[in-house]
Request: fold
Amino acid sequence: QSVVTQPPSVSAAPGQTVTISCSGSSSNIGNNYVSWYQQLPGTTPELLIYDDNKRPSGIPDRFSGSKSGTSATLGITGLQTGDEADYYCGTWDNSLSAVVFGGGTKLTVL
Amino acid sequence: EVRLVESGGGLVQPGGSLRLSCAASGFIVRNYFMSWVRQAPGKGLEWVSVIYSGGDTHTADSVKGRFTVSRDTSKNTLYLQMHSLRAEDTAVYYCVREERGVRGTFRFLSLWGQGTLVIVSS
Reply:
């Protein structure tokens, strides 16, 4: 069981907006940066959001990140079929002295 | 081009050993914290081990005493030596570059290799 939890799956129609939550504690999310990674089917994870809410160059502004207290959220607007992927949040855990990931959320674009 | 290329994966029997390599190009490995992250088939991501820029290492409890991370600065290459392998070690192993803040605070994983598959089975 991961110390950081995500919903196993979310779904929405093309063009709609979806949010994916990432819940932790003061040992991790509450006092450390959160990043998000997108893993398209059969590919390597790719950085999507870093430092809670920043986007690397090349990532469209349809993707956004936010954090409040011990929870973080990934938002995706204008959903496209190409957004179907697994999404992982990642952060540092002070108690474990390790990088921890959420269990991953599978996004289905109906 | 900045990239990481893993190699060394394969089929190994339970109790066996394997050494994974990760060749870096476009940047200097010793200037970064470098990690190994694995993903079991159909499962999520699991951090395995890190080597700090200063050379110290830290390993997840699940593999402590069995896995060792190291680097060869002359070859700009990262390694993961794995011993006493178990079926639950079966996974794709990714070499990953970390980004840290000024006081070593973890920020994010900026660069991933393509991964190398390790299968532990008799």
About this structure: Chain A touches chain B through 24 residues (CB under 8 Å).
